[in-house]
Amino acid sequence: MKQPLMITQAHIERYDVSGPRYTSYPTADRFVEAFDASAYVKALEQRNISAWTQPLSVYVHVPFCESLCFYCACNKIVTKRHEQGAQYLNYLKREIDLHLSRFDHPQTVNQCHLGGGTPTFLNDDELSALMQMLKQVFVFEAAGEYSIEIDPRTVDTQRLQHLRDLGFNRLSFGVQDFDADVQQAVHRVQSYKQVASLMQDARNMGFQSMNADLIYGLPKQTPVTFRQTISQIITLRPDRIALYGYAHLPSRFKPQRRILHEDLPNAVDKIQMLSEAIQQLISAGYVYIGMDHFALPEDALAIAKQQGRLHRNFQGYSTMADQDILALGVSAIGKMGSTYSQNAKTIEEYYDYLDQGQLPIVRGLALNRDDLIRRAVIMAIMCHGELSYESIELSYMINFKEYFKTELQQIEEKQKQGLVYLEHDGIKVTDMGWFFVRAIAMVFDRYLQLDANRARFSKIL
Ligand code: SF4
């Protein structure tokens, strides 16, 4: 797809509305407590009958962090007590056993992601034990994607080699910003040199893909400093870059109360940082994937986008087809068939369930027919940038134009704004529309349309 020449500040100002990131539809805030472990087990039994040959994706949440980043909105436990890692592994083992006892067949895994928190809070032996635990009970495909989030402050060359030896082939570096003042203001100090050296090591070790997370809108950031950060990351040439907007919601996320309001960039500067970052990355050869993500043209994600094979899951865009996700660890979210489920959010509750020999699932959702139809529509827009009415009509036996009469009126507005082409048999996202694809997807979100209170979501950009 041809990249747009310029996303201006005016565009960003115009389409900057609140909205979810659609790593799932319905979004996790719609999960209900009525969906519990027994509902999950039913979904798992269904997999035993109809989908057990499909490879699983496994997500493991490691909640611990050694120090607190002030912008943090994740579910984490800040502690220096590393002995907590061993205890957590014991509980993960119990949780894995509870899942396994319900599978009727051996399970193949082609995707495994360790997220957090800080997965590298665990020491080398603990990470070995965790991977061994998983590999003992699941068949890991040789060509699978095995990734881990890296806090550069917690790894060195030796640790990276250990991760490579354990079979990880993808790394995601939490970079955020290279400016020293910004790093101090968010309480996350890690030098450019440190990150550059780790990325070079990782490349030499044969990691297939490296991602760098960046955040704009942080305290002490200015368009000048952020331009420099983007230039620096471009010199490191990670295969993928995620560029997130910081949403300052101190009433919801306690760590953010440590950020001084007067240190935050104003809305105009924030927009300038985003538009310039987009220009810099695209000029440097990165392809815009959609929803905050960029990739080098030769990266699997960029190729998948070009070939219309992109998918989306809780980790963002993926090349792997929509598959069941087995979620392990406190607060982890999984997907089984047409259901989503989430584990207990506090470690005490999580341990408590497992002490009682119960799966720690506390909420979730069984998707109804309307959810499934809308999920297919939203994912087609977000992953392929186009939607064929006929494909939805054939899959769900509906008349698209009748079913989505109101939504299509709103889509007409998006057409006037230059975000989509409305054709007689479908919708196509324009080059500019890719940058605001969330706003287009939101039109089809029934929950959001019914819900006037959008303030709880982070800013769209
Ligand atoms: S941003 Fe990441 S590393 Fe920092 S406190 Fe939050 S979870 Fe931990």
From TrEMBL:
It is an enzyme of class 1 (oxidoreductase). Monomer. It is found in: Cytoplasm. Belongs to the anaerobic coproporphyrinogen-III oxidase family. This is Coproporphyrinogen-III oxidase. Residues 50-277 form the Radical SAM core domain. The keyword Iron-sulfur applies. It comes from Methylophilus aquaticus.
